[in-house]
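DATA SHEET
Item: assembly model
Revision: 1
Owner: S.N.
Input lines:
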Amino acid sequence: MFERLIGNAFIKSALRRLIEGGRVPNSMLFTGIDGIGKKQFAIELARAFVCKEPNGVEPCEMCSACKRAGVFNVPKPDDRDAYKRVVISEHLDIGMVMPFGRNILVDAIRHLEAEANFRPFEGRARLFIVDNADRMNDAAANALLKTLEEPAPSTHIVLITSRPDALLPTIMSRCQQLRFSPASEHDIEHYLTEHKGYHQHDARLAAKFALGSIGRAVGLDLNDIKTRRERMFEVLENAVFRGDLAAQLKVSEAIADGKEKDSFEMSLDLLQALINDVWNISVGGDATRLKNPDLEDRLALIAGGSDRSQLAAWNSEIENLRGSLDVNINRRIATDALFTTMTAGNTV
Ligand SMILES: [Zn+2]
């Protein structure tokens, strides 16, 4: 169980122990950044309660109950009335409260209160998820509090949020909290190749910019990232072989004058990853660990034309630039300076 979910081995074993001991709390709070599988863990926990042919505490993943458990008919975003109710999955013992726009409607929490009192229809327990629980206003939170105070023994409620600080302390104190960690780049890369059909090169690139979130990894525009990376590759190639400063300053203008700080930092990340790869190739490092394995041949050419102290110096220049971003420097001037330093030694 939970094997299909990535990372968070500690939480997997904690949940397993709780299920084995029959001590799963009635009120739980799953916290951690968006897109790391908190909801999938909650649904898997629900399967443990409803599976028809469990192997010990492990849900089989195959029976009709396991299959129906994760299927939610999510209402259309403008169907306000539908968000006044718990969205019950195709398994009647599993439901989810979802926000309507920015708010969880108090009526949905009242419906949850009523549902929480029913005995299970076909499973051994019922489980309800409150998704984006930080979107409860005070009225909704207070209504939920009542339910959390008098839990039916066979009902479990799992609140999910990436912003636990936005919850009322009284809600926090009634829930057992499980903190989810961001996934490692390695875990994300593995997940994308094994479950999403990504080529390994793409999976590695996506993992690098996923910030520990599977959801973010899957949503990344890889073509856009590759276009940016190509531009940074040309900066590096130019610095090593051509010394064409005018071309470098043009790129600086394109990446640094944009409005988005994130995409600027992404360009820096890409340049730094390329420099690190060139370094690794030049010291004869393990090629399987390259950040940009698809560019290996082209990076090897650059490695042949650059020296390591130069690469190390560029790397620390980028680190300096990154550090000074917090103090609101002029990105354009700083990037011009970086590219000029990189290119100066070879200016023709
Ligand atoms: Zn099953």
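QC remark: The two ends are 62 Å apart (CA to CA).
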